[in-house]
Sequence to fold (629 residues):
Amino acid sequence: MEAVNHGADAVYIGGPSFGARAAASNDIADIARLVQHARRFNARVFVTLNTILTDDELEPARQQIWQLYDAGVDALIIQDMGLLELDLPPIQLHASTQTDIRTPEKAVFLQDVGLNQIVLARELDLEQIAAIRAATRPETTLEFFVHGALCVAYSGQCYISHAHTGRSANRGDCSQACRLPYQVTDMEGRIVAHDKHVLSMKDNNQSDNIEALIDAGIRSFKIEGRYKDMGYVKNITAHYRTLLDELIERRPEFARASSGRTTFAFTPDPNQNFNREFTDYFVGGRKDDIGAFDTPKNPGLQVGYVSKVGDKWVELQTDSPDIMLNNGDGLCYYTLQKDLAGLAINRAEKVGEGIWRVFPKDPMASFRDLRAGTLVNRNRDMNWTRLLDKASSERRIGVWLRLDETAGGFALTLTDEDGNTATAEAAHAKEAAKDAAKAEATLREHLGKLGTTPFAAMGIALELTQPWFVPASFLNALRRDAVAALEAVRTAAYLRPPRAQPAEPPAIYPEDTLSYLANVYNHKARDFYAKHGVQVIAAAYESHEETGEVSLMITKHCVRFSLSLCPKQAKGVTGVQGTVRAAPLTLINGSEKLTLRFDCKPCEMHVMGKLKPAVVKASAPLNFYKSRP
Fold:
């Protein structure tokens, strides 16, 4: 609801189950309440039902979908194609980024089987996005992630969590092995990198690329937001709302997709929320600074350096005299081993121009390598947190008011920015005003009091034969009735987006063979692909038919490139650019070992590993779909 209040045209949210964030579920009643709030502004509500399902889960999923439809949900975001073989309500379907959409052929196929909106892979560049736009129909909406945490793997193509722990990323329960530190060794066992988070990406931030993405064909801008706090949702939504509104002002060929303009009680700033520093990933081409290799935590923003260290305090020289430190702020710094260490302020005292004496909550002895000259960042600003804990936005729909005389009284007509009109009228005696100017001002004042409604007066017309004295109580009641009537008209006028119809005869899938990478986990999904021309259909990795070493992750991120060891960067490195795979590397975390293999032609990295026997044993009783000869 706060995302809507801060300017979102649509929100996506997990339902009671089957969403790709297992711990971010919401019951049907709460989603229905969200729908009611969103519709005031013609904002959409999409529910994520984007895990792969077992046969036993298909019927519960179908029932849940009908419940969501009855609650007023506008669309489902799905991964499992088996859902298309079920008896579903006429609800719009969107292809999750979990369906791994990287090519025009895949996008066209998903469009042709009846998906209205497709969420493209985060790894695409502008040229690839434009190619997909050129291949698909104009009415097919292309969506792209513009902000938030990045999965290092192509979405839907990561199985490390399941192989090691039995927790499947494709079923909403990723253990996030990508955020762990690893030793990187070469073929001879030499250490290439020590305790580096080489699979951990910086956070996505496409603020500087919004117009380029629009020109490439993107029309829906997705903010990763589940598991985030309220301050993040408010701030980042407001940030992109501001960017889009500024662009719409410059380019009148575009318009807002929902109703109302939003004003904020703060200046949006993405740097204020948790982030691992920012990257625009591959949108502008491959770069070597996309990784958060030192830490998967929030390093914050630099505020200064240590000038003195006492037995119970540390003195900081801030980078600017305008920087204010507060009780409760969180500070951090890097130790000599490049570990990020945190320091929570119990009390902060200003002792000079830009000089602060900070008393930590923990004993000074617990802060390793904290000494004079150490650079200090702030990763929690309590003033900012308190600001966003309050009401921080106002979203209002523009409305024009017209007061007319009737034979027995007065009528108030409201017309909103979307063209909806409603009228309320009531009988009242007409009494000439003693002071015409004051009477007109009073009429305008009371008619324009829309403070607790979703509307803002854009203009008030008084179509009267002469200024009349009308009591404030009458005007207030008339205004309330007119507002209620307009809200009813808006509700009645709302149309859920229609579901696209699949092509006939059925579209042919771009490939005739599917490996475990297609995530086929139930018989309905198998039937779907068979109907669309696929001849060989392997079972999903979670079915445990792949017991040998396979690709547990496929990613466009390349550890060799990031460590300046890529054959394209340096001579003398094993491998020939674009023709063969570069020599493998090994990732080691405790007893876990993973092999990195490099496919230089498509410029991709495969993280290789095996399914642990303990995982197979622990999950054997479940009803898995199995491949059929």
Observations:
- The chain has 14 helices and 30 strands.
- The first helix runs from residue 2 to 5.
